[in-house]
Amino acid sequence: MPILRTIQLGYSCDSKILLRNVTLDVEKGEVFALIGPTGAGKTTLLRLLNLLDMPTSGRIYFDEQDAAKSTRLRLEMRRRMGMVFQKPAVFNSRVYENIAYPLKVRSCSRKEIQTRVEEMLEITDLKGYEKRKAQTLSGGEAQRVALARAIIAQPELVLLDEPTANLDPVSVSKIEEVLTRIIHEQKTTVIMATHDMSQGQRMADRIGVLMNGELLQIGSPNDIFCAPRNREVAEFVGVENILSGTVVDKEAALATINIEGGVIEAISEFTVGDEIYAIIRPEDITFRLTKDTSSARNVFEGKITRITTVGPLVRIELDCGFSLLGVVTRKSADELNLSLGQRIYASFKATAVHTVKSWS
To answer: Burial of 176 by CB count in 10 Å (0-12 exposed, 13-18 middle, 19+ buried)?
Structure first.
């Protein structure tokens, strides 16, 4: 049973439509990540789910109750949620008081507050920070204080808006470690908006792609990153090999696809005559200097048109009669001793090709 459900949710402000037709179920104990470009509506949606703002259309149900029923009910619902914003808000007081605040407003006993604060300090690795002024902390430390404050009352649902934005890699790792511990130990339902797609892959059970105020696709990380439903999603998640073609032969599940005069084999549901797009992730392409025996059904000779180093990876663009982009580690690129204009072989398995009939 979903702890949170939205039906045809919409929101407009100053005659501008920010969200439209957002229908979503989030199960108890699930980690759901919202990804999308800046301005897609992620923060707006989180504010609606946290009942800070009311939608202009549609419905929000929390634990099967309609949030539009009454102001009192919404307040009760919000007390069962925790929210952490992109820019951590900390009070001008000690870390201890910051974390203890939700329990104080609930009139908890001093002993219970002390016990729970100490537990939160342990979980968020802030032990020894109790007497520090919260506003003197680093960004990562302040975010952990905000996180501890959001979860100290043991909410059923925690909403996180870009919890690691603008933090250094060490702080990102620490925040993710804290979140993982909370999720596993407290079985908390989490909805997190993130610009970091790899973070969504690492932490989420399911991912929703929000673009231009609409949820274009919801699925497992594998669904989103390996089987995007349309071109917008494919391009956003980094699938740069989107090849237009036609199925020219089909034997059982194995389809032969004509791509600009070349032929690709793929496991596909489509039949002869169907016009499709073949999607191949760059990391699924292997490069060799010679046409060695390979289990891959797709092997193409091509000329290197561009080599680009990006951190520990090297992007290789190949002209095989059609353009093909792959990535290898810098070590592999050095071993291959690649150069512009060089002719090499690219290969990928039929199972690495995802086919889509049409874009929405």
So the answer is: middle
Confidence at 360, pLDDT banded by 50, 70, 90: very low
pLDDT tens, residue by residue, 324-338: 999 999 998 888 898
Per-residue pLDDT reduced to its tens digit, 246-258: 999 999 999 999 9
Question: Quick check: pTM over 0.85?
Answer: no
Asked whether residue 79 carries a pLDDT value surpassing 80, the answer given is yes
Query: What is d(CA 161, CA 88) in angstroms, rounded to the nearest whole number?
Result: 10
Given its phi and psi angles, is residue 52 left (phi above 0), alpha (psi -120 to 50 degrees) or beta?
Answer: alpha
pLDDT more than 90, % of the chain: 62
Please list, in sequence order, all residues whose beta carbon lies within 8 angstroms of the beta carbon of residue 12, skipping any fewer than 6 positions away. 18, 56
The residue written with tokens 């494919």 in the block is 234
Residue 169: CB atoms within 10 Å: 8
CA distance 229 to 216: 8
Q: What is the pLDDT of residue 359?
A: 54
DSSP helix/strand/coil, 264: strand
Q: Smallest Cα–Cα separation from 348: which of 255, 264, 291, 292?
A: 264
Q: How far apart (Å, rounded) are the C-alpha atoms in residues 257 and 278?
A: 8
Q: Which of 209, 190, 159, 191 is nearest to 22 (CA)?
A: 209
List the one residue out of 34, 36, 53, 45 whose CA is nearest residue 6. 45
* pLDDT, mean of residues 160-187: 85
C-alpha 75/C-alpha 51 separation (Å) is 8
Query: How many whole angstroms separate alpha carbon 147 and alpha carbon 134?
Result: 13
